[in-house]
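Structure first, sequence second, as always.
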């Protein structure tokens, strides 16, 4: 969502950050299986057949629709199996699971086995108030989903069970002072660093647009041997919406810009891995930028994965905000390293 504001964290919650708490043995909410209609997208640049956009090569995409009331607002996702089974969160407080299918030419062809399940609080009750369930960032490793929430700012961990997602098992200390996080500009990126890199696979969080005095974006290393706060240089009027580490240790960020006059824009930016350090200002070049002349919408989610032929892939999703004027898109690119 593109809103503004600022709120303080609740004192009680701040006192229990980083403390492990057992999952509540309460059944989760019902799982809803829904049908997704997926229209293939063959051109990224509307009306043109070009496929190469800087180092990114467009493979294909899908425009996803459904009659189900709760489908939409897709804010983050990660693959559980490369390019196939996925898990995601919505900013309306739902988990979603499904599978991307591909045709004989390796292009995205559809979405199957799509399920939704409402998130629950620590006592196992469904979270009905949006400000408590505004899930924006997601990381996955070893059967654990780590979710960044904004408005009610927190980073929480859950055991992954596609048939029965339950209460969080742990809350994490996100390092950034709570008073520096804007109400609806909190952690949009939650990602694991490279397992064998300087942060030993620890979690990294980047806010959407919580800015320091120099106008840079607050971020933090919240796990690993070098925990601490850093910032990402804000370039222009773009906000961070997601990110993932590349195999070489650089951080790929998805960014979005919006104005009523020109609509929405998106870009991909490669942040140098060595600049992701406590106390540093991380920075790096723009790899691709696209406006409404391309098949984009409110691009919110990103994942990086390796195809079975060795190609390094970047997948993006958009959040339609449950608006008839917006779309839920899935886009797929090869990231060339030459």
């Amino acid at each position: 969502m593109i809103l503004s504001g600022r709120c303080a964290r609740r004192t009680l919650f701040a006192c229990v950050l980083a403390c492990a708490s057992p999952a509540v043995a309460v059944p989760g909410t019902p799982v809803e299986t829904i049908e997704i209609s997926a229209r293939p997208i063959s051109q990224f640049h509307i009306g043109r057949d070009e496929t190469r956009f800087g180092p990114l090569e467009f493979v294909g995409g899908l425009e996803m629709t459904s009659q189900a009331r709760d489908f939409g607002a897709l804010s983050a996702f990660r693959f559980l199996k490369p390019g196939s089974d996925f898990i995601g969160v919505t900013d309306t407080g739902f988990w979603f699971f499904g599978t991307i299918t591909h045709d004989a030419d390796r292009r995205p062809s559809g979405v199957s086995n799509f399920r939704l399940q409402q998130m629950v609080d620590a006592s196992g009750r469904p979270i009905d108030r949006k400000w408590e369930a505004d899930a924006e960032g997601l990381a996955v490793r070893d059967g654990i989903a780590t979710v960044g929430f904004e408005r009610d700012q927190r980073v929480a961990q859950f055991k992954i069970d596609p048939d029965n997602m339950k209460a969080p098992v742990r809350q994490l200390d996100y390092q950034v002072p709570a008073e520096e996080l804007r109400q609806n500009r909190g952690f949009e990126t939650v990602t694991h660093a490279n397992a064998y890199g300087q942060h030993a696979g620890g979690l990294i969080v980047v806010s959407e647009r919580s800015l320091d005095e120099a106008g840079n974006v607050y971020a933090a290393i919240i796990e690993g041997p070098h925990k601490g706060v850093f910032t990402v240089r804000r370039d222009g009027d773009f906000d961070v919406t997601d990110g993932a580490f590349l195999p070489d240790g650089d951080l790929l960020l998805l960014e979005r810009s919006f104005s009523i006059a020109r609509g929405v824009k998106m870009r991909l930016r490669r942040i140098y891995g060595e600049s992701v350090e406590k106390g540093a200002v991380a920075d790096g070049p723009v790899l691709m930028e696209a406006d409404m002349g391309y098949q984009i919408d409110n691009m919110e989610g990103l994942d990086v994965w390796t195809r079975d032929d060795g190609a390094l892939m970047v997948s993006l999703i958009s959040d339609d905000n449950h608006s008839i004027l917006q779309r839920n898109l899935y886009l797929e690119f090869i990231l060339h390293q030459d």
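Margin note: Residues 11-15 form the longest helix (5 residues).
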